[in-house]
């Protein structure tokens, strides 16, 4: 798979155009019998039209709960969205009625989940499920819907689509099931596609095809909010990257800037420990994450007393263009980032060295 960064600039967008999606101070907590988990704790970001924004971070960092909170599909209870705003096309989704959200889900905002088996009904053919997705969102004859369903399967790379349309999900491989799930998500031509680990558990050939498909979608004007563990996938697709840890965003910036100079100690740890899926070992073995101050301070080799207490540190810009920022007090006016930047992080290789694996 080529690891050259995705550098396409979103088209037809002026600097003063409103973002398609604007999330501000989103907070979601999950109550269990043992504790209350601050799964999303003050998350803010935007997604512009025709742009791919990628959320990266280890399991449990809050990526999926963040995206499921946007349209209210996070299970409530045990989850509860307790604050923030989610503006989509100028409308706050957190104040929208359930009927309004149902009209937006799948039509204007579509989700592709990590496990395609959960999105496909085993007792109906993929064609039946695609036709249903199409006819729910537009008035169209069944024959025309079936023709469009076949075209969607072809678009996502299913061979012999007119024939395979009558097959059941279990007759498809895992990679093909994922592509069928994407086809269903695309049925209503949404403005925003939220894709949760769409390339996980597929071989590298299928992964490359899915990456190419997602690139084509953004080139056609669709926006993508992508969740992934895989730093190479992010490098291949993202215009901007948001790094999450402990329910918060700790670093954000354009793909080239963030990958060439990861600024936050947590981001640097992801690069240092990169094994193909950006895993840093078992979360439980490293203890609980603090709920105040810098969430990463207990694992940070540079932590000082000032990192504890209060809120997560504010974002400080780390480049002259002011597009790359880190939530780390070492970039503030009273501290020197030199100790962090002089670490030997394994950077650059993910976007500079193509691989065939």
From TrEMBL:
- EC no.? 7.2.2.11
Per the UniProt record, one Pfam family is oligo_HPY
Which segments carry the region annotation Disordered? 1-20
- Tell me where it resides: Cell membrane
Q: Does the keyword Transcription apply?
A: no
- According to the entry, every stretch annotated as the ABC transporter domain falls at 21-271
Q: What is this protein called?
A: Nickel import system ATP-binding protein NikD
Q: What is the lineage of its organism?
A: Archaea, Methanobacteriati, Methanobacteriota, Stenosarchaea group, Halobacteria
């Amino acid at each position: 798979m080529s690891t050259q960064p995705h550098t396409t600039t979103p088209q037809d967008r002026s600097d003063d155009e409103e973002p398609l999606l604007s999330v501000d101070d989103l907070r979601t907590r999950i109550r269990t019998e043992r504790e209350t988990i601050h799964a999303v704790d003050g998350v803010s970001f935007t997604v512009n039209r025709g742009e791919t924004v990628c959320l990266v971070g280890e399991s449990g960092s809050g990526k999926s709960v963040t995206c499921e909170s946007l349209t209210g599909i996070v299970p409530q209870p045990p989850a509860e969205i307790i604050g923030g705003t989610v503006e989509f096309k100028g409308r706050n989704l957190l104040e929208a009625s359930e009927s309004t959200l149902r009209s937006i889900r799948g039509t204007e905002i579509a989700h592709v989940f990590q496990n395609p088996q959960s999105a496909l009904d085993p007792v109906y053919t993929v064609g039946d499920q695609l036709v249903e997705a199409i006819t729910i969102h537009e008035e169209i004859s069944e024959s025309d819907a079936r023709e469009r369903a076949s075209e969607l399967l072809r678009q996502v790379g299913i061979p012999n689509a007119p024939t395979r349309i009558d097959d059941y999900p279990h007759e498809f491989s895992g990679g093909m099931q994922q592509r069928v799930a994407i086809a269903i998500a695309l049925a209503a031509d949404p403005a925003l596609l939220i894709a949760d680990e769409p390339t996980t558990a597929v071989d590298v050939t299928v992964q490359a095809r899915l990456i190419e498909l997602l690139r084509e979608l953004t080139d056609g004007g669709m926006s993508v909010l992508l969740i992934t563990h895989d730093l190479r996938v992010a490098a291949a697709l993202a215009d901007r990257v948001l790094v999450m840890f402990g329910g918060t965003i700790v670093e954000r910036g354009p793909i080239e800037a963030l990958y060439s100079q990861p600024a936050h100690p947590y981001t640097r740890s992801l690069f240092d420990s990169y094994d193909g899926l950006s895993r840093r070992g078992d979360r439980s073995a490293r203890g609980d994450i603090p709920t105040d101050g810098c969430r990463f301070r207990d694992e940070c080799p540079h932590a000082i007393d000032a990192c504890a207490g209060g809120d997560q540190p504010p974002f400080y810009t780390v480049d002259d263009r002011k597009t790359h920022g880190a939530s780390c007090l070492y970039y503030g006016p009273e501290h020197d980032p030199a100790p962090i930047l002089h670490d030997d992080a394994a950077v650059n290789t993910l976007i500079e060295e193509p691989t065939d694996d």
